[in-house]
Amino acid sequence: MTSAEELVAKLLACTFRFRHHSRERDTCELPVLVERSGRQPRCPWHDSDARPAGFNVKEELEKEIRRPNHWLEGAKLEMSDLRRLSGNGARMPNADLEGSQLDGAMLHKAILDDASLISTELPAATLSYASLSAPNWIALNCRVLISRTAISPERAFTALHLTARTSLASS
Ligand SMILES: [Zn+2]
In the chain, how many domains are there? Predict the structure, then answer.
């Protein structure tokens, strides 16, 4: 083993478990940047308290989304400033986006199944071809959440069902 390999081997990997049907691996495996004693090893996305000082959530998120095999299922992104996020193709099923600002965010083809979007601000966000299957919040919040987004509220119910099926078919 080279010293670089030893260094990598010593880094803890996040053990957060994935469940979405399209996942390519069962656990997160991203590096743990802040070890917290007595807690499960978690990357900055699966424990918002495990982020190093100065961690810029939006910038780091955009970097992670650009990685071709990224999988941010269950990411803790509540109350985050994600305005104008470049999030096309983001794979974030079950992400917690409660109370986050996503005004003008680009989320074309994003996987957001079962994401928590309670009080999430999505004005002028692009959600074309995004997968948003989530029976709980569709019924409750759909009209509010997607007003002024790139797809009209009236069409969204159809779009949501269609994209959910597309996402299943491609898995
Ligand atoms: Zn993780």
Answer: 2
